[in-house]
Structure formats: C-alpha cells, structure tokens
Amino acid sequence: MTKPSEINTRKKRKSLPQNRGNVRREKLILAGKSLLEERCIEEISLANVAKLAEIPLASSYHFFPNINSLWVEIASVFGTEISQVIFKSFTLDEDDNWQAIIRICIRRAAELYRNNRSYQQLIIGGKTPAYIKLADRRNDEVIGRLLIDAIEDHFVIPDFPDQAQVFFHAVEIADLMFMLSVNKHDEITDTMEEEAKRASIAYLKCYLGEFLHQ
C-alpha cells in the first residue's frame, strides 16, 4: 500500500515543474511589457523578450509560439486589470447623478494608460495590430456590461432596446478619444480626457436622459 507521505512527495514533484513554468511565463509577460514601455512594438521580437527575461529562446516558444501570442496575453492581462481599476468602489456626493460614474470611470482608465505606456502602445497606439483591436473590442463589451451594473448600484436605469450594445458604444467612444490623443500627442492629454467624458455622456444622455432616479 502506498503511504500518504509517498503520495505527498509525488504531488510535490509534479508541482515543481508547473510552478517553474508559471514563473517563466510571468517573466516573459513582464519583459514584454517592459520592452513596450521603451520601444516601438514593431521593433520587438520574441528573442528580445526572452533575452530580457533571461529565459532561453527555445524554452520561450513553449509558452508563446510567436510574439503575437505574447501580445494577446498581455492584452488579456490588461482587460482584467482595467476592469478592476475602473470599477473600484464609487463614492458619490448626494447631488451626483449617473454622469459622475462615467467621469470617474474614464478618469481611472486614463490614469491606467498614463501609468502604463505598454498598455497605451499595445491597446490604443497608432500601430496596434488588428488582432489586438479585436481582443480589446471583446474587453470593451465586458466593460460596457460592468458599467451598467455600476450605475444600477446607485440609480434606476430605464429599459430600452440593445442596452448592452449602447453601453459598449459609450466605451468605444471614450476609447476613440484616447486613441486620437495618443496618435497626435503620444499621450492622453487632460483636454482629450475631458473630451472622452463629454462625448460618452452626450451619447448616453440620448438613452438615459439628464438624471436617473436613485
């Protein structure tokens, strides 16, 4: 009969390669983000990433068969992070309306991009690959649904057709303003952050009106 201690030893042996693999994968992701902070996306190869991560290139292919697959993974990390950042708890004043939540969300998103040039270049840069744009559209659909939930936590949203699609469009409008700013100024300026707020709110007013009941 196999002793419990022997079973535990086998489990530990099996988990060691897996843990080592997770560490290497994370190193490659961090190295990719670091290079995006400093270099143009078109200039970065998987070999560059592997060198910075101090992982043999042959081993890197086990995690990411090409540089595009690494960018997709970083875009996925961004999607998770931006949702967590945007939808932290909201503290509203008594006279605030639903528009205050939109302003807070857009401000938080702009700050995340400003503090992470890697995300700015990969997601809203002028040379963002088409497959990353597609992945980000899916992220924006999730953000649109979470935005509905955030507003409904404080206000009553009236029923109207294609509600999720409307909020997705509002997110895309803000993204467009961010992209225009990055393409022209290489950053999200304060002016274009305000434009993103104005444009998204103006669009949503067509469906929500000026005020919502609490």
Automatic annotation (TrEMBL):
GO terms for molecular function: DNA binding. InterPro entries: Homeodomain-like_sf, HTH_TetR, TetR_C_22. Residues 22-82 form the HTH tetR-type domain. PROSITE patterns: HTH_TETR_2. It holds the Pfam family TetR_C_22. Keywords: DNA-binding. Residues 45-64 bind DNA. This is Transcriptional regulator, TetR family. It comes from Shewanella sediminis (strain HAW-EB3).
